[in-house]
Specification:
The structure holds two protein chains of two kinds. Chain A is α/β, with parallel strands linked by helices. Chain A has 14 helices and ten strands. In chain A, strands 1, 2, 3, 4, 5, 6, 7, 8, 9 and 10 form a ten-stranded mixed beta sheet that branches. Classes of the chains: A alpha/beta, B mainly alpha. The interface between A and B is large, with 36 and 41 residues.
Chain lengths: 355, 418
């Protein structure tokens, strides 16, 4: 009996030790999850011996919220969109992170300066930057001189595609109307600014095809349904590089958005999780992810380290939203603004659409 | 004589009165029957009734403000609507803000007030961060932190939000809001969307139902009157699309109907249309109707078919032999007999069409949006689940109302699914 007790205690001890050597990361899966596996999980497992278990969810924020509310958290690291970071952080569902412990960039830049604006929060650290931007067919039109051309039917006739949402459409309209990216949200917060954005949209309303799913934008362009469209940079990249479609990006006034790593409140291995986040978001590993998917690294210092795409011949740097030349005149989505105004503006946008 | 007299009670072989034994057996039978259905009942209760009930309850109950801001909620409860805030109110607010910020619930509170007054969520989170450092008199220090705290409209919005139970989300769902004095007024015209979408949803669903009946009736008749071997072959043509993924069928229609699609290109190639005169059949109401018709057609063909199969052809022959014209025979003899199938098919199609959302989202463009797209928006994007629940409840009530109307006019017992 005694021996049995000693044995089981020893085994239980071993089990807890083994458990500490394992963390669970919840992310979006698909091609994106595969790129995280190659760039973060596999190197981390090889270097530290800690096992990284990858779990997928359509939107990880929803199971995380449920787990925290039920007090039964099984996930150590979670990949989130900024709006969910702000919401969950304000609701106390995420651990507050010691952001200052993040390593400096490979070129010696302190972490707080190295990360692209808006990718560091109290509760989360940015990993990738993607953007919503205009792409056009090189065989149907010459190119855009400015964002205003998108809203000019006389200069460039033909249908255009736009995402069916107030978010992105209103910002793009204001920038086309000459508002500097830095002032967009200040202008959009005033009733006159909203009227101004809708007046711009009115100019092309008759010629817009509205899309909802991300895959629709490159499809509309490939089918020749539209001569240009807004869309997510990664989607166009696949069509351009993998399928050889005659598309080109128009980078100025691209609207940047992020994905971030966070630790749910009450994560079973919070300490190990923070070590993992520090490792994954250093200059080298953020750069490595771009090899597997065309999203930009959240650190500026990573740009210099980005190499060839996995096809072995495409230089991926110029295709990334964070490439220095592409970043000029870009706009960073304001999570706070949309948290405040989403319902009001979406209602007006939907009313405008319906009439 | 013996039949009229009760006489000695009948006894079973083991000495129990027959009546008792029968009752016991009956009870056991009922219990066994109940135990058989109990798993299903529990399943429906747990996976259907409870979650839907909870969801619908959200449309009238949102405790986000009251639960996290107890002091100011008490002040609102103690004062009459329209009372201006005094120092006690500001002090209660400051204390609540500081505590909610510490408990990290300030975002929840801000989101709730934001539903009543746009642009206030960040006011709560920003002031929350500073609230612990504020000093009395709060009637001065709070408005000094942000002028908006002196705005009577904000106090009106907070008063509404402080009531956990209330009809506010139903007001929003029918494009109404509360004025500062508490009276109910329409929202500004550029935000009136829900009633128009409800009307459009019902009009479109009705049109689709009628077209489905007109298109499905001859097909079902053909299937029902052909010899079984040939009609089975044709039936596969009806069922094959029925078994195909909804998304595949919707995307196929995009490829066929879009501007550069099969139909337009063929017409241009034949010289019927000019290159710049291509028909717009996709990303508008036409696209929505065509794609939804195709998807919903089997739901009217199948019940009609099974009803038509069971109609005895000798009735029609009898009518003809008595001198009725073929039109009269159809109108007076055949059509009334197909009514149960038409009713079932129409009701199925209509109720499915009212809740449709992925097809309008993909092919509807701007003019093909339906109310379910709005519900999806509030469920997935804005996360205003209370408003989504209110919209869904209104839709459910409208459908039930129509169901009741159908029962009064046609009779639900006349419905036949097959």
């Amino acid at each position: 009996m005694r021996r049995l007790m000693i044995m089981t205690t020893a085994m239980a001890g071993l089990a807890t030790m083994a458990a500490a050597q394992e963390i669970t990361v919840m992310s979006f899966g698909g091609a994106y999850g595969a790129s995280q596996m190659e760039a973060y999980y596999k190197p981390y497992m090889a270097e530290t011996g800690v096992k990284v278990v990858s779990v997928d969810a359509d939107n990880p924020a929803i199971p995380i919220k449920a787990q925290v509310e039920a007090g039964n958290v099984t996930v150590d690291v979670v990949d989130l969109e900024p709006s969910d970071v702000v919401r969950l952080c304000d609701e106390g569902a995420l651990e507050v992170l010691p952001i200052d412990e993040l390593p400096d960039g490979a070129d010696g830049t302190p972490a707080r300066e190295d990360f692209v604006d808006g990718t560091l929060y109290d509760c989360a650290v940015g990993t990738i930057v993607y953007s919503t931007l205009i792409a056009y067919r090189t065989d149907r039109m010459g190119g855009l001189d400015s964002t205003a051309d998108f809203f000019d039917l006389a200069k460039i006739p033909g249908k255009r595609g736009m995402r069916k949402s107030a978010k992105f459409a209103l910002e793009l309209a204001l920038m086309a109307d000459g508002v500097a990216p830095a002032d967009v949200y200040a202008v959009l917060a005033t009733p006159a600014g909203v009227d101004r954005a809708f007046a711009m949209l009115d100019r092309i309303k008759s010629e817009v095809i509205w899309w909802e799913a991300g895959a629709q934008a490159p499809q509309l362009l490939a089918d020749g349904e539209v001569v240009m469209t807004t869309g997510y940079n990664g989607r166009f990249f696949d069509a351009m590089v993998s399928e050889g479609q005659p598309f080109a990006y128009y980078w100025p006034n691209q609207i940047l958005d992020f994905n971030l790593f966070a630790i749910p409140k009450g994560a079973p291995h919070a300490e190990e999780a923070w070590k993992f986040i520090q490792y994954a978001t250093d200059t080298k590993h953020l750069a490595l992810q771009a090899t597997y998917i065309s999203y930009g690294p959240a650190r500026r210092s990573s740009a210099a380290m980005v190499g060839l795409y996995k096809d072995g011949k495409t230089e991926i740097g110029p295709y990334l939203p964070t490439y220095p030349a592409n970043m000029e005149n870009s706009l960073t989505t304001s999570i706070e603004f949309w948290a405040d105004h989403d319902i009001e503006l979406s209602q007006r946008f939907n009313t405008w659409l319906a009439n | 004589m013996t039949g009229a007299n009760p006489g000695p009670a009948a006894i079973t072989v083991d000495g129990v009165p027959l009546r008792v034994a029968l009752a016991r057996a009956g009870r056991r039978g009922r219990l066994r029957a109940f135990l058989l259905v109990a798993p299903l009942l529990a399943f429906i209760l747990v996976s259907f009734v409870v979650p839907i009930g909870q969801m619908l309850f959200r449309s009238v109950h949102n405790p986000a403000f009251a639960a996290n801001m107890p002091r100011i909620t008490a002040w609102f409860a103690a004062t009459r609507p329209g009372t201006g805030p005094d120092e006690a109110a500001f002090a209660a607010l400051a204390a609540d803000l500081a505590e909610a910020a510490r408990a990290r619930t300030i975002g929840v509170v801000g989101t709730r007030v934001n539903y009543e007054m746009a642009g206030t969520r960040s006011l709560f989170t920003a002031t929350g961060r500073k609230a612990a450092g504020l000093a009395p008199p709060y009637a001065e220090s709070l408005p000094a932190a942000d002028r908006a705290w002196a705005d009577p409209a904000l106090w009106g919005a907070m008063r509404i939000a402080s009531r956990a139970l209330g009809p506010e989300f139903y007001l929003a769902a029918v494009d109404r809001t509360r004025a500062e004095d508490g009276s109910i007024v329409p929202v500004p015209p550029d935000r009136r969307i829900h009633l128009a979408l409800f009307a459009r949803t019902f009009a479109l669903s009705l049109a689709i139902t009628l077209i489905c009946l007109v298109l499905g009736f001859p097909v079902a008749h053909l299937l029902a009157t052909l010899p079984l071997r040939r009609s089975n072959l044709l039936m596969i043509l009806v069922l094959l699309p029925f078994w195909t993924s909804l998304l595949v069928r919707t995307t196929a229609w995009i490829a066929i109907l879009q501007g550069q699609g099969v139909v337009n290109s063929a017409l241009v190639g034949l010289g019927i249309l000019a290159e710049d005169g291509r028909l717009e059949m996709m990303y508008n109401r036409t696209g929505t109707i065509v794609a939804m018709l195709h998807i919903l057609l089997p739901f009217v063909i199948l019940p009609l078919y099974s009803v038509m199969r069971s109609i005895n052809p000798s009735y029609a022959r009898a009518a003809r032999s008595l001198g009725a014209t073929s039109w009269t025979t159809f109108r007076r003899i055949y059509l009334p007999q197909t009514l149960p199938g038409m009713g079932a098919g129409a009701l199925l199609v209509f109720i499915l069409a009212v809740g449709y959302y992925i097809t309008p989202a993909l092919v509807g463009g701007a003019s093909g949006q339906l109310i379910s797209n709005m519900i999806a928006f509030h469920m997935q994007n804005s996360l205003n689940w209370s408003l989504a629940a209110a919209l869904a409840t209104l839709l459910l009530v409208a459908v039930l109302l129509l169901y009741w109307l159908y029962d009064r006019l046609v009779g639900i017992d006349k419905m036949k699914l097959g």
